[in-house]
């Protein structure tokens, strides 16, 4: 018998990641639809996170949303706006555990519209996003 007691340590518990389900939301009509998960849920998260103004709604944490609207209509150079939009979109998305990387950006400023396209590497595969603000 040694000087230290014999202690049995339990096996490490490996938690399964929860299935992240949400309801589909039609942003045109405001209608809530069926439950979605997987790639559809991640696509919806990306779209909503970009359109939601960060720090503007108390229902969301300060991590949720994007500040792109604060760049629009200002007299910044096109290069500055593009670089800042890339940073803001990336920050809005990568905090979510399902998204590991945002890349391959294409941002076009045309009058009152901004066309945004990029790819996101997610737990559900690569997702291509295209939108107009």
Strand and helix map with partners:
Layout: E1 22-25, E2 32-36, H1 38-51, H2 78-94, E3 99-110, E4 113-122, E5 125-132
Antiparallel strand pairs: 1-2, 3-4, 4-5
The residue fraction in helices comes out at 10-25%
Distance between the termini: 73 Å
- The portion of residues forming beta strands comes to 25-35%
**Low-pLDDT windows of residues:** none
Instruction: Work out the number of β strands.
Output: 5
- The total tally of domains equals 1
Instruction: Quickly name the level 1 CATH class.
Output: Alpha Beta
Task: Write a structural description.
It is a single chain. The chain has 133 residues and is of the alpha+beta class. It has one domain: Nuclear Transport Factor 2, Chain: A (Roll), CATH 3.10.450. Helix content is 23%, strand content 29%. It has helices at residues 38-51, 78-94; strands at residues 22-25, 32-36, 99-110, 113-122, 125-132. A 3-stranded antiparallel β-sheet has the order 3-4-5, covered by helices on one side.
């Amino acid at each position: 018998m040694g000087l230290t007691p014999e202690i049995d340590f339990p096996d490490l518990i490996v938690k399964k990641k929860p299935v992240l389900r949400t309801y589909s939301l039609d942003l045109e009509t405001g209608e809530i639809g069926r439950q979605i998960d997987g790639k559809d849920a991640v696509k919806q998260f990306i779209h909503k996170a970009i359109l939601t103004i960060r720090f503007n709604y108390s229902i969301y944490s300060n991590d949720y949303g994007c500040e792109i609207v604060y760049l629009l209509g200002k007299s910044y150079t096109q290069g500055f706006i593009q670089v800042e939009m890339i940073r803001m979109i990336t920050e809005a998305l990568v905090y979510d555990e399902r998204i590991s990387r945002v890349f391959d950006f294409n941002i076009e400023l045309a009058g009152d519209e901004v066309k945004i396209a990029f790819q996101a590497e997610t737990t559900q595969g690569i997702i291509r996003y295209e939108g107009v603000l």
